[in-house]
Every structure is written in C-alpha cells, then in structure tokens.
Amino acid sequence: MQQQISVVTLGVADLGRSQRFYGQGFGWTPVFENDEIAFYQMNGLMLGTWQRDRLAQDMRRPAEGLSSFSLAHNAPDEAAVRYLIERLCDYGGTVLRPAAAPPHGGYRGYVADPDGHAWEIAFNPAWPIDAEGHVTFGT
Predict the structure, then answer these.
(1) Residue 128 counted as domain residue
(2) φ, ψ of residue 24 in degrees (nearest 5)
(3) What DSSP string runs through 93-127?
C-alpha cells in the first residue's frame, strides 16, 4: 500500500467563516466550493472544509463525536512562523501555544482555526521545503 493522504476534511460550523480564515488568513484559493463544502488543492493532497453536520451525516456519526487532531504547516524560517500565527489570528484564529523553540529543535507554535482545529505552524531546519512547497522528512 502506498503511503499517502489524498484528502483531509475538516468539519466546520460556518463555511463562510472557515473560508475567511483559509482564504484571507493563509491566502489560499478554493479549487471547488458550494454552499456546504470547499476544497483547496494542496501540495500533493486536498484539504476539504465541510459543514460539520453534513460531514457527520456522511460518516454516519454524531457531529459531537468528530475527532480532534492537529494539522501542520511548515514555514521557511522562524520569522515566517511568527508572521503566519499573527496573520491567522487576524483572520479568526486563536493562539493555542505561542511560537517558541521546543527542546527537540526548530521553532513552532499552535493556532486554532475558527472551529477549533489545531494547526502547528513550524520551522524545522532538518525538513527542507522545495519550490513547490513539498516538505521532505529529515535530511
């Protein structure tokens, strides 16, 4: 089996609010959107934001039972980490953990999107980012 993630879908309470966070905060443009879902083409996978109740219905789970998890966005340096965390908060995000250097190296902080999904904004000097935005695990 090939190691890959094709789509990450986040259940959101308010699609418009979510689109403001991802569109204006990160500066991303959806490749598809309608009244209940938006898809963003990422570097090698797709990110979907779908109305939480519709996602829960599709999975046949109660909306309250959706799992929490952290997504990560790698930045080219420490200044970019601080900048992006501040920018995301300007567009509806909430700092969960301010940017700092962890004991294992690098630099990172956590921000929650308007629906509470945790994003690690990180700089890891051992994980290079190529021109297309692909991160390579270790070097």
Answers:
(1) no
(2) -90, -35
(3) -EEEEEEE--TTSSEEEEEE-TT--EEEEEE-TTS
Q: Identify whether 137 is part of a domain.
A: no
Distance CA 35, CA 113 (A): 19
Tell me the residue ranges of DSSP E strands in the chain: 7-12, 32-33, 37-41, 46-51, 70-74, 94-100, 107-112, 118-123
27: number of Cβ within 10 Å: 10
**Rounded average pLDDT per 10-residue block, the chain, 139 residues:** 76 94 96 94 88 85 70 91 97 95 91 90 86 72
CB distance 56 to 62 below 8 Å: yes
Q: The domain spanning residue 51 has which CATH number?
A: 3.10.180.10
Entry pTM: 0.77
CA distance 15 to 87: 19
Q: Compute the distance between CA of residue 10 and CA of residue 121 in angstroms, rounded to an integer.
A: 17
